[in-house]
């Protein structure tokens, strides 16, 4: 297994953990999951055990293995408690919230998101108002806002969710990455779709897709197209909906996101079946 040329560093330089993470993502794109995970256990990595586990947990979440991310992230949380490292507590709780949210444990996700906030930059534990919390935000706190917004969406508190996402998006545009901005645009699109604001939902989801395309974030591009497909279907633009789903399956397959590809394929088959019924039912024409 030869290492890709991810950086111009000298050949005798010891690869950093960040370098290994980039390499692992490249291997996943090539369908080499086992080799990708093995990189995090390499004795060549000069990093503390908690740091190795944190990066592994984040990698597993990003590549669709949220259930397997719980164990390494829990190791990090235990270390953070022992060392009383509040910022590390905040980071790992945010990642645990993401993992549990992806697994469908929404109440547990909301609980860990609140832990992240309490130990991080927001002071919700002191019962401050939203405006007071925002005043105390640091430049890298938008991830907690996005997490809180996701929980608000699940609780159908759409007004709060939109408020949090707009604040987060403003900060991501100033300080964040295209992927972080795209996440907020995508969540805003989903939010407006749930409320029936389909035109605005399409605009926001398309912004998210274009930003994810800039960074070649294939799993996120697939998700954006999946959400767009649902909106187009709700609008009666059935051919556009099926094209979006077909394209999302293509992107999921390219990055070895098997579960997402299967879910999208099942939905595509359902769309095609419903479309055949509509085309042959005179009462619907």
Reading off the top of the CATH hierarchy, the class of the largest domain is best stated as Mainly Alpha
- How many individual β-strands? 0
Low-confidence stretches: 1-14, 122-140
Q: Supply the number of helical segments.
A: 14
Average pLDDT level: 80
* Radius of gyration, whole Å: 21 Å
Characterise this structure.
With 285 residues, the protein is mostly helical. It has three domains: 9-109, Alpha Horseshoe (Serine Threonine Protein Phosphatase 5, Tetratricopeptide repeat); 121-213, Serine Threonine Protein Phosphatase 5, Tetratricopeptide repeat (Alpha Horseshoe), CATH 1.25.40; 238-285, no CATH class. Helices cover 74% and strands 0% of the residues. The chain has 14 helices and no strands. The protein has helices at 17-29, 33-38, 49-62, 66-83, 86-102, 106-119, 130-135, 142-154, 158-175, 178-194, 198-214, 218-234, 238-254, 258-280. Helix 5 runs antiparallel to helix 6 and helix 13 (238-254) packs antiparallel against helix 14 (258-280). The chain is globular. The model is unreliable at 1-14 and 122-140 (pLDDT under 50).
How would you summarize what this structure contains?
The chain has 285 residues and is an all-alpha fold.
Keywords:
Serine Threonine Protein Phosphatase 5, Tetratricopeptide repeat, 3 domains, 74% helix, globular, 14 helices, mainly alpha, 285 residues
Topology, pairings included?
Elements (H helix, E strand, L loop, with lengths): L16 H13 L3 H6 L10 H14 L3 H18 L2 H17 L3 H14 L10 H6 L6 H13 L3 H18 L2 H17 L3 H17 L3 H17 L3 H17 L3 H23 L5
Helix pairs in contact: 1-3, 3-4, 3-5, 4-5, 5-6, 6-8, 8-9, 8-10, 9-10, 10-11, 11-12, 12-13, 13-14
Organism: Gimesia alba
Protein name: Tetratricopeptide repeat protein
InterPro entries: TPR-like_helical_dom_sf, TPR_rpt
